[in-house]
Design a protein that fits this description.
Length: 192
Amino acid sequence: MPSSPTPSERERSDAEAKAREKEEQAKLPYKWTQTIKDLEIAVPVAGNLRGKDIEVVMTKTKLKVAVKGQTPAIDGDLTHAIKVDESAWTLETVGGGGKEVSIHLDKSNKMEWWDAVVTNAEYKIDTSKIVPENSKLGDLDGQTRGMVEKMMYDQRQKEMGKPTSEEEGKMEMLKKFQAQHPEMDFSNAKMS
């Protein structure tokens, strides 16, 4: 039975995988980054091109980016769905006289990391190694924020040896029931 790798072996393996991933991503005809909410893609093009020379087709599930009459730099099904109305592209001048097609994709599911821009990408990243940036509670949607605040409250309550919000709710129900039924003996009642 093989033993699990030592911390130094795991570090070396992770470093090798990261270097290989970086090398593979460099071979793509575009650069891309992501946050939990969106993707930014940069496709380098010749400096003499104008917006009318670029073809960008963006749907909820597909992306095509090409210089008209040339093989597309990106053409395929997106790894996950996007919000088309919140996504956009521009042609920008970059250093050295070149230009790039800059694409912003707004993720539909803001709780999901992508391993590639399109499903037919030659190289994919290991999303289990992504270390997300710290987010602020204000960045979260209302439902998620409420859930996180409740979890944080319950954690603080547990640390202080006090009841969680769920336990408080049960105790409140018991008190109301006791008030409605004073004839009953609740001295041996246990909450579970």
